[in-house]
Amino acid sequence: MKKLMILALCGAFLFPSCVAKKKYQELEANYQKNKDLLNTATVKLNSCEQDRASANTRIKSLEERIADLKLSNENLISTSKDMTVLTSQGATNLEKSLESLKEKDLKINRLQDALTKKDSVTLALVTSLKKEVGLNDPDIEINVEKSVVFISLSDKVLFKTGSYTVTDRAKEILGKVATVINSKPDFEAMVEGHTDNVPYNGSILLDNWDLSVKRATSIVRELQALGVKPEQLIAAGRSEYIPLVPNTDAQSRSTNRRTKILILPKIDQFYEMIEDEMKNLSEEGN
């Protein structure tokens, strides 16, 4: 009996102790479960926070891009308006340029016509000279140089060595040249005297400059005596400074001793022609 009572008492004490431990285990399991849920939620919350920060950054970037696009659009609209103005101005400028080109084309055509006429006159002049003077004398050259007709006469045809007195043979040739010059009252004849590089050793003149000029004036006087108007004549001396070939021997020096007669339009008439042409174009433009 005494033993039964002891067992009963022990059971009474042990049963509540077993119940409390089970409850504690259940609570601890719930706590762990809730703790796991809390950790999971915290992880998800952190992830959401990161996603939100990333989204905010993207939104800000998109907003900035939208602002840039709006600004670009406004600039494009402004540029488009400017281009419209420029296009209109360009069309006007193009029209003016075309008009200017037409005027220039007209001037070019007229100048080409003038050059064609000048070439025709030059050809006719060369033909006349060759017909009058002849072609068989090697000491007489008739040619065109820079659109200017010229006759080049060898020194031995015109003068004796060191002299500026015109020979009889020269007078015959100059008579034919005078015939051509007299047929061209609107032209001038410039006579150029050329020497070689041998220093002049006479007693009357100073040097080759004097000799070249004196030979030119002798030819001018002879042409005047043959009926050429003096206002058509020009005398010029070039001395030794424009040789045709190097003065290396007697033959080359003989080649360089020459007299050129250039037949050219009067300069004042040339300028008058240009002024009249410009005046006509100006009047047509108005």
Could you provide a short overview of the structure?
With 286 residues, the chain is α+β, with helices and mostly antiparallel strands. The chain has helices spanning 2-133, 155-158, 168-182, 208-225, 250-256, 267-285, and strands spanning 140-145, 148-154, 187-194, 233-239, 258-265. The mean pLDDT is 78.
Structural class, please?
alpha+beta
Note the main sheet.
Answer: 5 strands, mixed
Strand proportion: 5-15%
Taken in chain order, the helices and strands follow as: HEEHHEHEHEH
Number of strands: 5
Radius of gyration equals 57 Å
Spatial strand arrangement across the major sheet: 1-2-5-3-4
Distance between the termini: 153 Å
Give helix % range. 55-70%
Query: Which term fits the overall shape?
Result: rod-shaped
| Count of alpha/pi helices | 6
Fold and architecture overview:
The chain is rod-shaped, with a radius of gyration of 57 Å. The chain is built from six helices and five strands. The chain starts with a helix and ends with a helix. Helix content is 68%, strand content 13%. With 286 residues, it is of the alpha+beta class. The protein has helices at residues 2-133, 155-158, 168-182, 208-225, 250-256, 267-285; strands at residues 140-145, 148-154, 187-194, 233-239, 258-265.
Characteristic key phrases:
5 strands, alpha+beta, rod-shaped, 13% strand, 68% helix
Topology:
Blueprint: H1 2-133, E1 140-145, E2 148-154, H2 155-158, H3 168-182, E3 187-194, H4 208-225, E4 233-239, H5 250-256, E5 258-265, H6 267-285
Helix pairs in contact: 1-3, 1-6, 3-4
